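Per your request, structure below.
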């Protein structure tokens, strides 16, 4: 492995180690104004959905599979914000187990080299948090937090898709209750 590749890997690991706990901390400290029992129920369901989707990929052929955990992560980012999305991903990583049918082995973070695990976690933390924060910043001051979460631009594969403000203001409902 080249020195440049090693530097990139450790850079992603370092950014993930900094941003991951920061996002979890920001999510936990922001829980003061919500119903805690309802929040715990919702997060347990979202974490279970994400862990199940990551553990049961859709196999296309023997060498290719589609990971559908983006469903749980995207719904968390859209409904609860980017910090909750990172929290769901990191906590679900503790319970994710993948079975390799060819070798009969089980893969999870407990039998994977730490460098590989930290790189993969860091890579996805950045991919969830940065577009989520861009979406969060775009909707500030546009009718309150609840409306902002319902009128976000689409987030697909870590790319931010722009929407026009006129579409938000004239086509979409003004309150989540109108949906």
């Amino acid at each position: 492995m080249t020195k440049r590749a090693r530097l990139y890997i450790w850079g992603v690991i370092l950014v993930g180690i900094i941003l991951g706990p920061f996002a979890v901390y920001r999510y936990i400290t922001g829980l003061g104004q919500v119903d805690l029992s309802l929040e715990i129920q919702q997060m347990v369901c979202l974490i279970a959905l994400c862990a199940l989707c990551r553990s049961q990929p859709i196999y296309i052929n023997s060498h290719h599979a589609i990971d559908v955990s983006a469903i749980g992560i995207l719904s968390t980012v859209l409904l609860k914000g980017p910090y909750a999305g990172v929290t769901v991903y990191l906590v679900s990583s503790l319970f994710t187990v993948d079975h390799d049918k060819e070798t009969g082995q089980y893969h999870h973070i407990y039998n994977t080299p730490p460098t590989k695990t930290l790189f993969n976690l860091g890579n996805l933390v950045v991919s969830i948090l940065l577009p989520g924060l861009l979406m969060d910043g775009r909707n500030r001051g546009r009718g309150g937090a609840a409306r902002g979460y319902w009128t976000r631009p689409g987030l697909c594969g870590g790319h931010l898709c722009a929407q026009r403000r006129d579409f938000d203001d004239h086509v979409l409902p003004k309150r989540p209750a109108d949906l």
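The first strand starts at residue 58 and ends at 61.

Regards,
D.
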